[in-house]
Give the backbone structure.
Amino acid sequence: MELYVALKVIWAFLLGVLLTGLAVMVGMDMGVGTMLRFVGRSDLERRAALNAIGPHWDGNQVWFVLGGGAIFAAFPTLYATSFSTFYVVMILLLFSMILRPLAFEYRSKVDASRWRATWDWAFLVSGAVPMFVFGAAFGNVLQGVGFHFTWDGQYFQDESFIWYLLNPFAILCGLMSVALSLYQGGTMLVMRTEQPIAARAERIAVAGGRIAALLFAIGGIWVSLMKGFVFTAPVDPAMAATPLHGPAVARQAGAWLGNFHAHPALWAIPAAGFLGMIAGSLALRAGFAVLGWWLGALAWVGTIFTVGVAMFPFLMPSTTAPAQSLTVWNASGSAYNLTWMLVFALIFTPAIIAYTGWAFRVMRGRVKTDSIAHDEHSY
């Protein structure tokens, strides 16, 4: 395999890894914020839930930066086109996420019930909205996005942002993303908080896992009937990074299952997603919270890589100009760029994983409600 082609494939895989890290780590924090009003019946209980993720939430944001940075550097055409297409949605995502650090910092500054209740609702919004948008984005690209390029490379959007956010399949994917974040966040609280918070969090997490499995199954059937995208002529994987002279592309019902039919072993990926959701819920009910957390991570791996495998090599197909669809082959950076990025990724990604593991080990143990009542350093 030519080096340039190999680098493109490696970075498509690494992009999936980074998006999975974002979903697991950031999604966990978002899940806690979404359920905060429901697992905590008093101010102290809500503070205990916040302090369970307090040492980690800002550090986990590195996965958000890494995911966006990987798209920017490894697939610059995808970055420019997607951020333009989903501009209003991105602004919604940005403003909702801005609420979260503000809520962490300001919630406990004033000892007034109305003040703190307002910030608790801000946690819900800043947790549920970003995860909904994250899932809806996967639903959008699976369906294809309305955009095209003119002869001089100018981009034009052909559909309303409201359709991107609120079409039925995107809503299903968004709800599944929220359900998985509730599972991951609830599992974290089971491990890190005392009763009765842990019991309430367990009920929400188990429900989230079961709902996610149901939505995953419905989504799979939907995708099998959906018109996917497929090349109808030979493709040069080492093609130039431009969508203007792409190969012939057609839309066909069931096309997104083509890679699975060609390589049956790939069915293990969606199976792993189902295993994580179902077995994780059972593990939580049986009292194995740590195992449940890792099975939740497996559910995210199965979900995101199922989408990646189904679409490969497509990244962002166009419904209005299919031949201009963005793929791993025509939307990547240069070989020089991808090589140096790979060198730094191989150095810093393991370092980030090691640091994250160390931080969780140091901060292990349950947050005790009584211990934070008079702790001026706690959230």
User: Anything to note?
Assistant: The longest strand covers residues 227-231. The CA atoms of residues 127 and 174 lie 12 Å apart.
